[in-house]
UniProtKB/TrEMBL annotation:
InterPro entries hit by this protein: Enolase-like_C_sf, Enolase-like_N, Enolase_C-like, Mandelate_racemase_C, Mandelate_racemase_N_dom, RHMD-like
Name assigned to this protein: Mandelate racemase/muconate lactonizing enzyme family protein
GO molecular function (one): magnesium ion binding
UniProt keyword Metal-binding present: yes
Phylogenetic classification of the source organism: Bacteria, Pseudomonadati, Pseudomonadota, Alphaproteobacteria, Rhodobacterales
SMART domains, per the entry: MR_MLE
Pfam families named among the record's database cross-references: MR_MLE_C (PF13378), MR_MLE_N (PF02746)
Protein species of origin: Fuscibacter oryzae
Keywords annotated in UniProt: Magnesium, Metal-binding
Entries under Gene3D superfamilies matching the protein: Enolase-like C-terminal domain, Enolase-like, N-terminal domain
Signal peptide from the UniProt entry: none
UniProt-listed GO biological process terms: carbohydrate catabolic process
């Protein structure tokens, strides 16, 4: 069954893709967030031409073919654009077969334990602790992640002393029996990361994410070797060769692919297989409530080496105004600390027609 039409609906932040097959069946996917308008241009120039006319239900080779045809363009934008094709075709196949994507890739619908993930650094330790406790009481979260250092901060803190304060204040407020994670977002040199890591160990934090500039696999490996807690990373990495290096250098204890940065489910499954072969768990990166979190939920229900939880952004419209009104209903209800993959076909979400009406439209189709 051939793909005959590929449409994009986008603004600057979010771009949805609708794939149509020759029998009229359709599926919805999304390119990765941010500069989505540019990504959709890449989609129509460098992805759609190779996909039109190919098999809508069996497309692993199409994804690889695009990579080969556009081999002069390694890197982020093409992967982000390919994700739109991959995720739309998984949804289409799910709708054709009447199955959720989780089932198509070897898993099943059901619950996924979530951790509450803060994106904020401009928040005081006391305010961060207070909102975590509210979320714990309202949604039953049993795991939380907050931020230390400054993003790509060259050893500087968001403000002097914030990290030394936010680690114990939030950890004590959460108390025992809760999983505690922090994210350095490429802040530290190995020396400083190890100092911060000791502070984390003393305060019961079990997961130290992206301690050093993520492209320095040896630096991250040095930190991992020096600490007893788990070091995690990989959210930015979109070339399989990078994952190979990361694994070979023993940089991390936990792999964190982002389904949408990496190029979709097919490529993410490949990273999950690489992780499984190395005995490493997968705790994907999913930092907003666009489609990425739903794709990640389906993935975690299917792979043999899932990490302990789903990343679940707790930020509202003050931080992510563009998340407003993307879907009909709420596909992201957290009950007792868990999100749920339903048995609805495909991704099990409906894109909001009102949002689509306000977006910029473009189509590629078989003439
Ligand atoms: Mg991170």
């Amino acid at each position: 069954m051939k793909i005959v039409k590929l449409e994009t609906f986008t603004n600057q932040y979010v771009g949805f893709v609708r794939a149509t097959a020759e029998d009229g069946s359709q599926g919805w996917g999304q390119v990765s967030t941010y500069h989505a308008d540019i990504t959709c241009e890449v989609f129509h120039r460098q992805v759609a031409p190779y996909a039109l006319g190919t098999n809508a239900l069996d497309f692993a080779d199409t994804i690889q073919r695009i990579y080969e045809k556009e081999h002069k363009f390694p890197g982020s934008y093409l992967r982000r654009a390919q994700t739109g094709l991959d995720t739309a075709l998984w949804d289409l196949r799910g709708k054709v077969e009447g199955k959720p994507v989780a089932s198509l890739i070897g898993g099943s619908p059901g619950k996924v334990r979530a951790y509450a993930s803060s994106m904020k650094r401009d928040i005081t330790p006391e305010d961060e602790a207070a909102r975590f406790l509210k979320l714990r009481d309202k949604h039953g979260f049993t795991a939380f992640k907050w931020r230390v250092g400054a993003e790509c901060g060259r050893d500087q803190d968001e403000w002097p002393g914030r990290t030394e304060a936010v680690v114990p204040v939030v950890s004590k407020a959460l108390g025992d029996g809760v999983d505690k994670l922090v994210d350095g977002n490429s802040c530290y040199s190995p020396k400083r990361a190890i100092e911060v890591g000791k502070l984390l160990e003393d305060n019961g934090i079990g997961h130290f994410e992206e301690p050093c500039p993520y492209w320095n696999y040896d630096q991250t490996a040095e930190v991992r070797a020096a600490l007893n807690i788990d070091v995690a990373g990989g959210e930015q990495d979109n070339e399989l060769s990078s994952w190979q290096l990361m694994i070979e250098h023993k940089s991390v204890d936990i792999l964190q692919p982002d389904v949408m940065y990496l190029g979709g489910i097919h490529r993410t499954l490949e990273v999950c297989r690489m992780g499984a072969a190395a005995g490493l768990p997968i705790t994907p990166h999913a930092a907003n409530l666009g489609l990425v979190t739903m794709c990640t939920m389906h993935l975690l229900r299917a792979i043999p080496n899932p990490g302990k939880y789903l990343e679940f952004s707790i930020e509202g419209l003050d931080y992510y105004p563009w998340q407003d009104g993307l879907f009909l209903g709420n596909p992201y209800d957290i009950v007792d600390g868990h999100a749920t993959v339903t048995d609805a076909p495909g991704w099990g979400v409906e894109i909001n027609p009102e949002w689509l009406m306000k977006s910029a439209y473009k189509v590629s189709e078989i003439g």
